[in-house]
Structures are given as C-alpha cells and as structure tokens.
Give the backbone structure.
Amino acid sequence: MSGGEACDGKKLVRSSSGLRMVPEHHAARSPFGLDEPPWVPDKDCPRCMQCETKFDFITRKHHCRRCGKCFCDKCCSKKVPLPRMCFVDPVRQCAECAFISQKETEFYDKQLKVLMNGATFSVARGTSEKSEMMVCRLSNNQRYLFLDGDSHYEIEIAQISTVQILTEGFTPGEKDIHTYTSLLESQHITEGGNTRATGMLLQYKAPGSEELTQMKFTASEDFNSNKKLSAAWLAAMHKAAKLLYESRDQ
C-alpha cells in the first residue's frame, strides 16, 4: 500500500449540529471538506434571517448546519445530507444551503466514484513532448491523484494550484478552456460545460519544492469506450476542482 493510500483512522464526534464521522487527525481530512461554521448567537438574531419573522415562544429558532445562520422553521425545515462536513445523517439546512448540498450529492454519489475508478490518459510531464500512457485515479482517502504506467506519481490534491480542462478544437488560452487558477491564493474561477473535454493541464508543487510542476493529460483515442471514460473522468475532475476552490476559500 502506497503512502498516499494509507488508511486513516476515523472517530465519531457529537457537536451541537449532529453526529460526525471525522478523521482522527485534522491533516487526514478530505481536501473537499468544509469545517462546521460557528452558529450566530441567539441573542444576535431576534428575527429570522430570511423572512424576518420575529421569534417568540411559538416561533422557534433553528440554525442551518451549513452556514450557521438563524432561521424560523419555515425557512430552515429541510434535512439534507452534508458529506462535506462528515455528518452521519441528513441535517437541517436553510433553503439556499439545502439547494447547494443537494447539487453536491451527485459529486459524492457518482463523480467521486468515477475519479476513484480512474481513466487512461497520455501524460506528458513539464515541457517534454514525450508522453506515457498512464491510469489516473483519485486515492480512496481523496487526498492524492495516482498516476500509474511505467512510471508512478502521487500528486497531493492539497498541492494542486491550477487545473485547466482542455476542450476539443481549442488551444490553451482560448475562451472555451475552463480554468481554475491560483487555487492556493483563492482567486476567482471561471466555469463552463465540458462535454467535449479532451484533456487537462495540471500544475502542482512536488514534495520539497517551491517550483510548480506541470503535467498534461490527453484522453486516449484508441477506443471509443476509453474516450468516453476519460471524458467522464475529466468532467468529474472539473467538479472536484470547484469544490477544492470552495474549501480553500472557506
């Protein structure tokens, strides 16, 4: 078992928001995870922060587990899964947060599995024109990208600074490339559909180095099935980069 695939122990903890199954060590947390927000103190919210209904003996206060704001029952009635905070059960969320969490469910239910199952790409390192066929997959603990061919690389997700999804018919720098730049500095990102995704440019810091290393991933065109699998993997990586940005910007 590689260092990046080592099993991390977990523990069950209880907070005011509910039961959470979290890593024993904070350093072992998923890079896509979110910290629990502090709750707005009861004394600071005499009214619902959505509809402004005044709280009293009948109209009780409820805190959204995702944003920590205070709402009435009508504005904070949905209980939705929140895997990014490691909650064991669905938790109470306001309408806005519930909508976001429901959209993220697809990533955790489907796209995360696609990333872990992996796909085959032609990979070139740095500015080299020489490439190597490699299977790329996300580690089970979500903290590393594994690249396996004649060579083996482990890229720590936390050290990725730039992800560019390349699309068919365009070259880097043109408008149809969807770029997540300077994630470590939490700069804004540009999103777009990537139904024609054909590759990816990745920049990251290797262990012990302050310099950025670049890798270019190109989808294999040998078989249509492989091409579809690679496109699905790139689409999942597109979503993963967005969640990674959000986690760092928290």
Observations:
- Residues 170-195 have pLDDT under 50 and may be disordered.
